[in-house]
Amino acid sequence: MLTLHSYRRLDTPLFLCASLLVITVAVALLGSGSLQRTATEMMIRIVTVVGLFIFIGNSGVMSFGHIAFMGIGAYGVAWTTMNPAIKQYVLTGLPEILRTTTLPWVSASLLAALLAAIVALLAGSVILRLTGIAASIATFSLLAIFNVVYSNWDTVTAGTSSIVGIPTPVGLWQAFGFCCAAIVLAHGHAVSRHGLALRAGREEPIAARSCGINAWPHLMVAFVLSAFVCGLAGALDAQMLGSVNPDAYYLGRTFICLAMLVIGGMASLSGAVTGVVSIAVLIELLVRLEKGVPLGSWLLQLPSGTQEVVVGIAMIAMLICRPRGLLGS
Predict the structure, then answer these.
(1) CA separation (Å) from 199 to 59, 76, 134, 277, 327?
(2) What is the pTM assigned to this prediction?
(3) What is the greatest pairwise CA distance in the chain?
(4) From residue 325, how far is each of 85, 136, 203 by CA, in Å?
C-alpha cells in the first residue's frame, strides 16, 4: 500500500512525466510533421541528458565521454535491425550471427544499450580510479578513441560514410515512452543507497570517507547505468533518423547536451529535463530565424550559426548568474 511518503518519493518523476505527456499530446494533436519530429528529437535528448545526470549530477565528476556511449548504442542497433541483404555487402566485417540476424526494434534497442553498459564497465574500471580533472580528461579521451575507431573500422561501421537503411519505427510516442522510463530509472538510482552515497561524497567528501563510504563502487554503478541510458538514447536516435555517422556523436552533441544539463541544473533531475526543453525551444526558434521570418515587406533573418553562439552565451551567463542552473538542486 502506497503511503504519503511513497507518493512524495515519486512526485518528481510523476510530475515530469505528466508534463511531458501534456507536451506530447499537444504536439500530436496540433503540431505539423516537422514539429512532431522536433518534439521527438527533444524526447531523445531528454533521455541523453538524463543519462548524463545519473553520473555527473550525482557524482559531481564532469564527463565529456558519455556521447561515445550514445554512438555505441546507435551502431549497435544498426547492426541488429538492418536488412541482412544490406549488411552482407556494406558491413562485411560483422560476425556471421549479426550479418544474418534481424531483431525487433525494442529488444535491439535494449541490447544496444547493454553493449554500451559493458563498454562502460570496462572503461570505468580504469577511468574511475582517477579523480577530479584527471577523470574528466580521461572521459574526453574515451570520446576521442570512439571517434577514431568508428571512423576507421570500415568493414564494421562503414567508416566516415553513414550507415543508411536502418528501420525507423521510433516516433513521438515511442520516444516519450522511453523518456519516461529513463526518468523513472534515474530517480530510482538517485534515491537508492548508491545515489545517496554518491551525493554524500560530492557534497562532503571527507565526512563521507570518515563514515566508511567507499566512492568507487558507487561511481561504477552510476557510470554503467548512465552509459546504458545514453546507449538507449543512441539506439532511439538511429531508429528515428535511419542512419548513423561517427561524427554525429562527437564534439557538437557533447557540447549541446552538457549545455542543457548545466543550464537546467546538474544536481537536479528536474533541472536536466527543464534544461533540455528550454534549450530545445530556444534552438527551434533560432533555427526558424536563421531561415528567415517575413515581417511585412521585411525579412528577419539571423546569420547562420547563431544558435551555437546564443547557446554558448546562455551557458556562460548561467554559470555566472546561477552556477547551480535554473532549478539548482
Answers:
(1) 6, 32, 20, 25, 17
(2) 0.91
(3) 70
(4) 49, 20, 17
Looking up cell 535491439 gives 108
DSSP secondary structure, 183-216, as one string? HHHHHHHHTSHHHHHHHHHHH-HHHHHHTT--HH
- Dihedral (CA of 182, 184, 186, 189) sign: negative
Matching residue, cell 531528454: 46
Q: State the DSSP string of 104-134.
A: -HHHHHHHHHHHHHHHHHHHHHHHTTS-HHH
CB 243 within 8 A of CB 300: no
Closest CA to 62 of 269, 267, 247: 267
CB of 77 within 8 A of CB of 108?
yes
Which residue carries 554512438 as its cell? 71
Pair type for strands 293-295 and 298-300? antiparallel
CB 298 within 8 A of CB 289: no
The pLDDT profile of the chain, 329 residues, written as one tens digit per residue, is 444 444 456 788 999 999 999 999 999 998 788 889 999 999 999 999 999 999 999 888 899 999 999 999 999 999 999 999 888 888 888 988 888 889 999 999 999 999 999 999 999 999 998 888 899 999 999 999 999 999 999 999 988 888 998 999 999 999 999 999 999 999 999 988 888 888 887 777 777 677 777 778 889 999 999 999 999 999 999 999 999 999 999 998 999 999 899 889 888 899 999 999 999 988 888 888 888 777 777 877 778 878 888 888 888 888 888 888 888 76
Q: At 228, list the grid cell.
A: 546504458
Chain mean position to CA 240: 14
| 35 contacts 27 by C-beta, under 8 angstroms | yes
Lookup result for grid cell 517575413 = 294
